[in-house]
C-alpha cells in the first residue's frame, strides 16, 4: 500500500480522488470562463499547475517560520509573486495565450485550489510531498478543464484544438454539414458541460461503489467481508491479523 505522502499517492489524489473540478468543485471561475476551447483549458491548467507546485514548495519550506496569525496574508503574497512571474513569462513568450486568458491570470492569486492546498497541505507537510501535491492537483485541474473545453469547442464550433473536425453546413451552396450549437461556446454552455461531465463521473463512481470497488483504490477493503479473501482482513471473510 502506498504511503499517504508518497509522490504517487499525491498525484493520484489530485487527479482522481480529490479532483479539484469534478470532486471538490473548486476554481469554478476560470473553469467556466476560459474553457471555450481545449487550448485555453490546457493553457490555464498548466499555468495553474506551475503556480501550485511553486507556491506549495515555498510555503512548505517556510511553514515553520510564518507566524500562524498572518499565514493567509503570507500565502497570498507568495502566490502573488509566482503569479506575477508566470504572467510576465506568458506575455513575453506566449502572447496569444496571455490575451486569451486575460484577467483570469492575475485572478489565480485568489484561486480556491491554490489557497486551499496551501492551508490544508503545504503548510503542514514536508517539501517533496507538497510539490507533488501541487502537481497532482494542477494536473487534475488541467485534465478537467481541458475536457470541458474540448467538449464545448467540438459542440459549439465543430473544432478541436483549433482544427476543424466536423465540416460546417453552407446553405448558400447547398452543402450539408454540421450546424454548430453556439450556446456551448457561451457562458450557459459551460454549466451544461460541467454538469454533464460531473454526472458521468458520479455515475461511474456510484456503479463502482455498488460493486464494492473503490475506483481510486481497487485494492482497498470494500467492506464486504463475505467475499473478502484478504488474509489481513479482520472481518468474517478473512483471518484476523
Notes on the protein architecture:
It is globular, with a radius of gyration of 22 Å. Mean pLDDT is 85; it is low at 234-241. The protein has helices at residues 7-17, 28-33, 38-61, 71-93, 95-101, 112-120, 127-157, 187-210, and strands at residues 159-160, 163-164. It is mainly alpha-helical and 241 residues long. The protein is built from eight helices and two strands. The longest helix is centred in the middle third of the chain and has 31 residues, at 127-157. A two-stranded antiparallel ribbon has the order 1-2. The protein has one domain (7-167, 179-210).
Which regions have little confidence, pLDDT < 50, spanning 5+ residues?
A: 234-241
Overall radius of gyration: 22 Å
User: Strand share of the residues?
Assistant: under 5%
The whole-number mean of residue pLDDT values reads 85
Strand order of the largest sheet: 1-2
Question: Total strand count, please?
Answer: 2
Q: Helical proportion? A: 55-70%
- Total tally of structural domains: 1
* Overall 3D shape: globular
How are helices and strands ordered from N to C? HHHHHHHEEH
Q: How far apart are the termini?
A: 16 Å
User: Could you say which structural class the secondary elements and strand pairing correspond to?
Assistant: mainly alpha
Question: How would a textbook summarize the main sheet?
Answer: 2 strands, antiparallel
Count, helices? 8
